[in-house]
Write a structure and sequence with these properties.
Order of helices and strands of chain A: HHHHHHHHH
Strand content of chain A: under 5%
CATH class of chain A: Mainly Alpha
Structural class of chain A: mainly alpha
Oligomer: homodimer
Number of helices of chain A: 9
Largest sheet of chain A: none
CATH architecture of chain A: Orthogonal Bundle
DNA sequence: CAGACTATGTAGCGCTCGCTACAAACCGGA
DNA sequence: TCCGGTTTGTAGCGAGCGCTACATAGTCTG
């Protein structure tokens, strides 16, 4: 195995890939190490302890999410809030995003429980998403800032309901609200 | 220690109390047993294995939630959607509800990850909450069913944003939507 | 009272956990 | 070339995990 350049920076992408596929809470050092072609011994050496590793990993994942949003910045803006909402919801429901969404709820749960590092990562990702959403608001929207926050609240509620098998509840609610059809 | 009447039914309330204070995912048999004044040996004896214990526990907790909602059914209904939303949000934000909310996000995360038993419990709780919310809608609401679903989506989004430190984002969004002044 | 079945205590199995002790390999500068 | 620091491998520690084997106490039925 190539032992070249074993640093936090080269390890984090492989660790992130493993965590996206297998979860964060249940991840232990030895499987993580194997996923990064190294040993638990070296993970502790480079990160100090597991808590720091998880914190760094969450920061790295938040960074990935941020750059993914930057890359997804559409050229042409939607013309209505409804269109804006539908577009971002569809993007979040894309199968490619599934591992990320599964991990996301784990981060929310960790944030609620107060596990070190989780809250910060979750906050960063939401802040980024909000900023991104503001840029995606219709150009002629009377209140882009407030509208983005409103849409984001609706969006997160929709995603949560979807996760627990109540996607229909959300879509019927959105239909009644006039924000989104279907 | 009183060894009287050691059954699933007498065990579950004590187990639920422990889980509400210490989390579900990280809970292991021996601390759970101590919280219920018994031994890990007996937990396995009565539930078969840990997975079944967790499933039963989630069912029990969903039941607790359901009866709590029944008890919280207000005598006089709100007169506007905004009032309805504010009232239920305030109730959900009550400090007494905190352990339950923390556990809730763990259930959502487990549901997203597909852990057996989580999805069913989450679904049951949301279904119950929706039914409850429908009864709390203003009497003259033009579309109580759709309105309840809309408010619920907004509510869940608000709660999630609150958990990750974005309560302001949600309240500003609600302000812009006209549903809640905050 | 005999026997069967249920309920419980004690002890421990094999495993994984995060982490560490110790030594060897490597590598740059004197 | 030797030397000191950085990086890595091997082995293992103590603890906790879910779960089981085995024996025993209690209880109910015939």
């Amino acid at each position: 195995m190539s032992k070249a350049n074993l640093t936090r920076e080269t390890l984090l992408p492989k660790l992130a890939a493993h965590v996206l596929n297998h979860g964060l809470g249940g991840a232990s050092l030895r499987p993580l190490a194997k996923a990064a072609d190294t040993s638990d011994r070296m993970l502790i050496y480079h990160f100090g302890n597991k808590e720091q590793l998880v914190a760094d990993l969450l920061g790295h994942i938040a960074g990935i999410y941020s750059t993914a949003l930057d890359a997804a910045m559409g050229a042409e803006r939607p013309t209505t809030r409804k269109e804006c909402f539908d577009r971002i919801l569809e993007q979040g429901s894309h199968p490619m995003m599934r591992p990320f969404m599964v991990l996301w709820w784990e981060i929310v749960a960790g944030s609620a429980r107060g596990i070190p590092g989780y809250r910060e990562a979750a906050d960063a990702m939401m802040t980024k998403q909000l900023a991104w959403l503001e840029t995606q608001m219709p150009e002629d929207d009377p209140d882009p800032a407030g509208g983005a926050r409103y849409l984001m609240t609706l969006l997160e509620g929709t995603l949560m309901l979807g996760v627990v098998g109540h996607a229909r509840t959300a879509s019927e609610g959105l239909l009644a609200s006039g924000v989104s059809p279907s």
